[in-house]
Amino acid sequence: MTYSKADYPLAEKHAARIKGTRGKPLSDLTLDAVLKGVVTIEDLRITPKALNDQADVSRSAGRPRLAENFERAAELVDVPQDLIMQAYELLRPGRAKSRDDLLAMAKTLRDTYKATRIAAFIEEAANVYEQRGLFSKRY
Amino acid sequence: MEPHALRKPQIAHRLVAMDKPTPNRWKRFTDWDERPLRLDKFAAEDWKNGFSAFSSPADPKPGIELAGGKVASLDGVLAHDFDMIDRFIATYHLDPAIAPEAMAMDSAEVARLLVDMHVPRETLVRLAHGMTPAKLADVVSRLNALEIAFAYSKMRARKTPGNQAHVTNAKDDPLQLAADAATAVALGFDEVETTMRVARNAWSNAVACAVGAAVGRWGTLFQCSSEEAEELLIGMAGFTSYAETVSVYGTEKTFIDGDDTPWSKAFLAAAYASRGIKMRCTSGAGSELLMGFHESKSLLYLEARCLCLQRGMGVQGTQNGGIDGAPLTATMPGGVRELMAENLLAVWLDLECASGNDARSTESEIRVGAKIMPYLIAGSDLICSGFGSILKYDNSFNPSLLNGEELEDYLVLQRDFEADGGLTPLSEGKALDVRNRAVDALAAVYAELGLATATADMKASVVVASGSDETRSFMPRDVSLISEEIKRRSITVIDVIKALAKTGFAQEAENLLNVVKLRVSGDYLQTSAMVRDGKVLSAVNDPNDYQGPGSGYRLSAERRRDIMGIRDVLDQKEVLRSEALHEKDEAANITYKNLGEARPGTGTTDIVIGISPAFGLKLFQTTAGHKLSDILKTMTEAIAARGLTPRVVRFRHTADTSFLGLSAARLAGSGIGIGLQAKGTAVIHQKDRLPHHNLELFSNAPITKLEHYRTMAANAAAYALGEMPEPIVVPTRGEAMGSRYHARVAMIYAIETEMTAEGQSPIETEITFKGRRP
Predict the structure, then answer these.
(1) Out of B59, B172, B190, B193, which one is annotated catalytic?
(2) ipTM score here?
(3) In angstroms, how far is CA A83 from the centroid of its own chain?
(4) To the nearest whole number, what is the mean pLDDT of chain B?
(5) Do A121 and B541 touch (CB under 8 A)?
(6) Which of B93, B166, B294, B708 is catalytic?
(7) Contact criterion met (CB < 8 Å) for A35 and B501
(8) Contact flag B266-A67 (C-beta cutoff 8 Å)
(9) What pTM, to 2 d.p., does this model score?
(10) What's the distance, CA B219 to chain centroid?
């Protein structure tokens, strides 16, 4: 379903539908479960679904740009931290030596993680960086 | 005196030889030189060199051209020539469906809409989506400071105001961080931000503050400001819940020197959200100037670019209002107004605003108070970003606008203006409780995880310490070892929660878990989200609905009571209790015997001391703390010393000093009377004078000494003997007597007036001093 601002906060109004990364509902994420080792840090991560739900709420509240950020974020949930940091590093000035470095990163994210929005965003950056001469060595 | 120019030169020479020369300067300037204000430096307006707050000839004229649904030119720059910032704004901020309408509007008219309470916030937010940076800057520059504050109050996104604390210390001592984080939570801060003296201590700081912030209640969001990659890792380990150090800049060269681009920052914004961590950007006037690439543009225009960029990135909010550039901005004409204007731009663009007020932009306490006032009365998502909850020297960000030293001043400002500044007064007992609890909790976690041993002495020194100068606790090197161990062993918040629960801190474990659970639903990622009473409150479910008086945020009765609850508040019960303490004491010093109705003196040698109704009956000391028996003894002795007869008469028809004095004078054979109130105000009167046209008056009872009363009585005797004595003047150094004493005085005086009754006759009173004979 598509949520609207009337459904917000989702954790209060739709608690049963909120689930952690491994499918445990919010009500199962108790201190007791943590102490028994049933709930780990893996269960306490946000899911792509939660981010897309929040994007619905944002859009309904008149914040399309915030919604788009949540949608980009949803694509990054399953991307490993190292790769995220590599992509970030590559987007910084002078790290990529040419357009191709960024395009390769975009391809990896699109092909392996279905991160189509993120990939398009990085491709756009590649074009802008070329236009503005950002592929020069900085250090 | 002879005019200076006519003085004979030789006299001037002699003066030089005898004395220091009199400088040719009004000495008031010398006085002014000594004030803290003169440590502030002020800069001249100079747009070419980047020193202009609101507008510069180099700022572009607002403008937009669209072609095929795309932006063909933006503020005078053709698409072909766009720099990265123009490009990003054109692509992600500007809404081509709104731009033609919004850009065609007269800026003055839009400015009026901003301060028109009948025009809803949403109407203006929609228009902002179609406005270029130059247009936005042009509109807000038309508002004066009051209008900016009003518009800010109307336009900010969330209805309920909040506040953020800095919690750091000069030793990176984790015990003190835990204690101070818990204290900040108890004071009501919605967010706590820490940073380190030594970069590698980040993990230790994160664990310490996360544990401390879990004491007392849950929901205070926490961030550890460090290097981007490290900060994200700490967030992923679950210790932090938000980030706000993602800086953006208003010129391309500054951006590149800051080692980022709009795309890299926008990517980072998505990365934080993908980890369920709340995030806001940082920008602010002066950063481009400090970094050397200002393009001669005004501060406001450059900040407008930053803010359009941030909205385009899709971040929920910003930390702006100068921030590190605030002290520089405040050196310029209109600089402080500009800081307000850029905050207004942020909320107009529908961003959460952590509104700066986090750098000590002046040495003048007056400028500090003036700086914070508009925000306090207008409210803000986070009034300070943050408030230095610790002492100035412990602030690893540099001192904030307001700090631990001045925190009570801020609490009183809230009370003065009945304004919610986000804080709640803290009792001494509660402060000790939460500090003890936090220190014990962290020590238990350290012991359980085998990280370090905190001794009883270390803990005790931290609990009572105002700042790190007073602690005997962990030092930066110890902390580095702890911090590296936390990182090396990949300790997560789950390990800390377990350790808390195992060692008897189940509530804190639960509180900490609740904060981590916030990221599962992501509710707190929405604009202006904070946690109050265990519930997420944001611009979505608590939207600012200001539409004039009676709407928008108002103090609830309960919240008002909290804010009023500062310490050491006086009431009449307290005044009577304090007087009761002295009653017994005075009973041993003096007795007052009623001799019946007082009659006019028959001779010419008596002086009447007219005492007030409650004098010695319900009230026993002056506001200066003198025993009333001492005053009477001193005065009667001084009168007797001149061979005159002092009489004491208690009046019951009035408690007013002047009328006490005049009534006393009219009963005195000498025609001279003294009016004396229990609080110590005293007057010499003469029977033929108008009531308020007395001979001598002590109006500042709190600084009146026994010696003054003695001299006053001696002068009264002198007047009775027909002499013309030197009037006694109680010297004042300009103390704010009213602020110090008037509440007590009014309550004391009410006790006096309650005992008065029309037409009651004066009572001749015999006083006997006892108990203190040599």
Answers:
(1) B193
(2) 0.98
(3) 13
(4) 95
(5) no
(6) B166
(7) yes
(8) no
(9) 0.94
(10) 24
